[in-house]
């Protein structure tokens, strides 16, 4: 199995068998990918709590036939402060839902990756939710090439994603 290394943010996870988890990462080099973390549900897992939503990690994975397998990961940033405050948590969930919905599996988009990291950092640092939200939406539209001055960003993003995103923002 060939190994590869990249940086990624956990944007989702689900159970996979008795002791494993399937983690969805948005990575700088490979876009949105799903990787199996064997033994991640065990109390003494080598991954510990590093595979939580929003975690920004250095990832080492092995290329598998059907699914890649997580070998190691090191924490760059946990974004714990986002989880500690309800408004920040809602904003972080919003960013991840938009990014997850916008990406196709293995579609590399380094500009969106940088936007997500930057937006999460600003949210963690306590910059006002409305300011970070506006920055994220406008720059998301610019990266996707669909920004139109004078049109509300949530309308354009909703059209782009094919879903009404306004309910996603109700608690922000």
TrEMBL record:
GO terms for cellular component: bacterial nucleoid. Residues 1-79 form the DNA replication/recombination mediator RecO N-terminal domain. Keywords: DNA damage, DNA recombination, DNA repair. Pfam families: RecO_C, RecO_N. The keyword DNA repair applies. InterPro entries: ARFGAP/RecO, DNA_rep/recomb_RecO_N, NA-bd_OB-fold, RecO. Signal peptide: none annotated. One of its GO terms (biological process) is DNA recombination. The keyword DNA repair applies. This is DNA repair protein RecO (Recombination protein O). The lineage of its organism: Bacteria, Bacillati, Saganbacteria.
